[in-house]
Amino acid sequence: MLARFGEYQTGVNRPALSGEDIAARNWLRNRMEEAGLEAIIDGVGNVIGRTPGHHKRIILGSHTDTVPFGGWLDGAMGVVYSLEIARTYMEAGGNNNIGIEVVSFNDEEGRFYALLGSHFYCGLLEKSDLTGIHDTDGISLQESLENAGFAGREIATLDPAKHIAYLEAHIEQGPVLENEKRTIGLVTEIVGIRRSRVKFYGQADHAGTTPMKLRKDAAAALYNMATRLEALYRSEGSPHTVWNLGKARIEPGTLNVVCSFAELFIEYRDPSSETLRKLQNKLDQLSAEVADRYRVEKESAEVVTIEPAKMDPMLVGRLEAAAKNLKKRHMRLHSGAGHDAMVLVKRIPAAMLFVPSIGGRSHDINENTQEYDLFSGAQVLSQTVSDLVDDHP
Ligand SMILES: [Zn+2]
């Protein structure tokens, strides 16, 4: 039903605070109320439903916004699991010591700001930050919240004295579980991300009359750097290191002029901060060597630094025990994608479970998961919540 909002062929187009996304948020709040939860949409668009009368709660959630023309499960699956678990909890009487708080965090995908809703919920962004945030088209977050009717409302925040844990179920968005023929993945950590930019300043000259040995060719430096980076990451990275040279620019970009300026962007990810730091140092060294060799000037800078987030070992163990009890084939793995859990874990114990993505596909309308796996993920999450609630009789 949720997938009807922004439905596009076999996928969903529902970027944060688009018309479809706002309709989906209001729909979700109504479903929460129907389930007997106290439901609100707060001042940043987070949709929150709480079981009434509880002093302590387990937070269950994920996100309902999508990338443009994305899949129907990314984020939404975890929110629907959470809603159904809370509904079952209420139907069973809802009178345990530990309650449930279901949250759909706004703008996980970063139309305005990656993991926006969880940053506000965890107090890492505040009301005063609202005005400075825009999407890539220059549309302001504040204005979008006003249009949605959410602006000016109180912003809900987490309280570590009341919120004892955060659990998030999500599709894997990669091929590991499918390749290993497992139904459930227990996330041990979420990788850290580094983005670096290297600029080479050469000299524009006639490409026919300037001898090769006298050129200051910024493009040649860039190509050499790109090739050697591949070798560097293979030898110095861990078996988990992944990297992408997805963006580059050369100027003036024509065949009869020696290139005067080249810029290379590099993203790399790894579960270990130590490995990331080492790679950053090696990258700096390499850019200096390359600049030297091609007689160009260089500038390098790390432009994005996101540290890896280790999930709470006790909660990972609880999810694993539930998977084992339910006889689901499972394994531990790290997440190569960012998730709200990496923000929540800064404040309270948090953990995640994954279900397989068919063909590893995600952020695409072809994203899907086998029905048995969808069902199994809900069972494991639900069992883990029951176990945690039973711990506090
Ligand atoms: Zn997601």
Question: Structural class given helices, strands, pairing?
Answer: alpha/beta
What is the total tally of β strands? 15
- The portion of residues forming beta strands comes to 15-25%
Distance between the termini: 35 Å
The whole-angstrom Rg is: 24 Å
Query: What ligands does this structure carry?
Result: zinc ion
Number of helices: 10
Order of helices and strands: EEHEEEHEHHEHEEHEEHEEHEHEH
CATH fold-type name of the largest domain: Aminopeptidase
Helix content: 25-40%
The average pLDDT is: 96
What's the main sheet like?
Answer: 9 strands, mixed
How do you describe this structure in short?
The protein has 393 residues and is of the alpha/beta class. It has helices at 19-34, 76-91, 116-121, 141-148, 176-179, 218-236, 273-294, 313-325, 341-344, 371-390; strands spanning 7-8, 11-12, 38-41, 47-50, 56-63, 98-105, 163-171, 184-190, 192-201, 242-251, 261-270, 297-306, 309-310, 330-335, 350-355. It has 10 helices and 15 strands.
Can you walk me through this structure?
The protein is an alpha/beta fold and 393 residues long. 33% of the residues lie in helices and 25% in strands. Strands 3, 4, 5, 6, 7, 8, 13, 14 and 15 form a 9-stranded mixed β-sheet that branches. A hairpin with a 5-residue loop joins strand 3 (38-41) and strand 4. The relative contact order is 0.17. The mean pLDDT is 96. Zinc ion binds at residues 63, 74-75, 108, 170.
